[in-house]
Design goal:
About 25% of the residues are buried. The radius of gyration is 21 Å and the shape is globular. Helix content is about 35%, strand content about 25%. The chain has seven helices and seven strands, in the order ααββααβααββαββ. The strands form two sheets. A four-stranded antiparallel sheet has the order 5-4-7-6. The longest helix has 23 residues, at about 30-50. It is of the alpha+beta class and about 240 residues long.
Length: about 240
Amino acid sequence: APSYIFNYLKMATQVDAAPQAVKAQISKAKKFVRDGVFRAELNELLTRELAEDGYSGVEVRLSPVRTEIIIRATRTQNVLGEQGRRIRELTSVIQKRFKIDNVQLFAEEVSARGLCAIAQAESLRYKLLGGLAVRRACYGVLRYVMESGAKGCEVIISGKLRAQRAKSMKFKDGYMVSSGNSSRTYIDSAVRHVLLRQGVLGIKVKIMKDWDPTGRRGPKTPLPDMVKVLDPKEY
């Protein structure tokens, strides 16, 4: 197992960030902070461990009986491992690190990979690590996202791209909302860092999803400025 997993197990005796571990009554503010630290640390561990398998986020469901952790990824078979070995290892690490007795891990496949900013940022990261030209890699991601049914997409890469002087390159396509409540509900964004020989490159991917009444490929609520013209009634 990687060294950072052992570091997590060492830290288990020092810090306890799991929400269920504290039996005594704690204030609401402390509880929210504790839950936030738990989710952030869990997300960091899974990001490092499952980056190559298209890790796209995690959801924690708390119940009185058990804690359910749903891992979203593009390649669920790799997350599960051979005969479920890898997911059992992750379950054991999480149990020891956060001192949670009854925890269950599930792997859920991302339905629309092209509409997931985390998956596209990781894809772009591995393209750049493989030596692909920056423009070609960015335009490839941009085209794939737009073909998947997105309303708009923006990719920003900054760092030492060619020369010694650092600069930023922005690639945009389609329609993008940047302010208001719509930017929270419609925009999916992700930031990743690529460690190359010449230095560190920063990647930011923003995807604007289209309105979907079913709520599967986009938000259920339509944009506030969307006007629907009805046909005139015939009397």
